[in-house]
From TrEMBL:
Alphabetical list of PANTHER family matching this protein: FI06469P, METHYLTRANSFERASE DOMAIN-CONTAINING PROTEIN
One annotated GO molecular function: protein-lysine N-methyltransferase activity
Organism: Sulfuritortus calidifontis
Name of this protein: Methyltransferase
Entry's transmembrane regions: 24-43, 50-78
Gene Ontology annotations of biological process type: methylation
Matches recorded under SUPFAM superfamilies: S-adenosyl-L-methionine-dependent methyltransferases (SSF53335)
Keyword annotations: Membrane, Methyltransferase, S-adenosyl-L-methionine, Transferase, Transmembrane, Transmembrane helix
Length: 233
């Protein structure tokens, strides 16, 4: 949607551009960056949207072998495969989010925590060091991210490759998610059905539609994020 709006702006201004094609791409990129800023997207998405089409235009001027484009596509699929179905991009939890989550977790030895969409395993690596008493798990649907996080964490966490919707949540005391607005209503229904009373569902930044959290912690990080906390009953 960001790029579609940016293209509308660029085409509207095309009559004033000389030379046409490079200038059109630059205006599209600038418009996409401004729209991303106004939409308060994370910083890295602002840069991606700003540079995406201008870099494509620049790459067309270079003598790059087609095999490199195929390799880039393969890497994109290996890291963002799950996003094609779930509409959940890769978000990385900030250091502030990791610290606040560590502070919020109950002092319960053997507490079982699941990171939904565990990505590169940064959150679980932090918790494994800060709270070695925890039993940590992650679920990841992107093959390369799953492999890298498995290698990173070793036996400190159980990182599984698979589908969130096929994962039973009943054994977990805490479920943490940093996803997108798209799956939140469905995920809330799943947590209510499967998680035991007294367990915690914690979402980074994204709310459950129509369900206010029991507690909220502002993070003041680059995402302008917050931890939204629900206690299951």
């Amino acid at each position: 949607m960001v790029h579609l709006c940016a293209w509308i702006v660029a085409v509207a201004l095309a009559q004033f551009i000389e030379p046409f094609w490079p200038g059109l791409l630059l205006i599209q990129g600038f418009a996409a960056g401004i729209i991303s800023l106004l939409a308060r997207l994370p910083v890295w998405w602002r840069w991606i949207n700003l540079l995406f089409f201008p870099l494509i235009g620049f790459a067309q001027q270079l003598a790059i072998a087609p095999a490199w484009y195929l390799l880039a596509l393969a890497l994109l699929l290996l890291t963002q495969f799950g996003a094609l179905r779930s509409r959940v991009p890769l978000y990385l939890s900030s250091q502030r989010a990791k610290a606040e989550l560590t502070r919020l977790l109950p002092a319960q030895p053997g507490l079982q925590l699941l990171d939904v969409g565990s990505g590169l395993g940064g959150l679980l690596a932090h918790l494994a060091q800060a709270r070695p008493d925890l039993k940590l798990s992650g679920i990841e649907s992107a093959p390369l991210l799953w492999l890298l996080s498995r290698l990173r964490l070793g036996r400190r966490a159980d990182i599984r490759f698979g589908d969130l919707w096929q994962t039973d949540l009943s054994s977990y005391d805490v479920v943490y998610a940093f996803l997108s607005p798209e799956p939140m209503a469905r995920l809330w229904d799943k947590t209510r059905r499967e998680m035991k009373p007294g367990s915690l569902f914690i979402s980074n930044s994204f709310a459950v539609p129509g369900v206010p959290p029991d507690a909220e912690v502002e993070l003041d990080d680059l995402h302008r994020g917050r931890l939204l906390i629900w206690r299951l009953s």
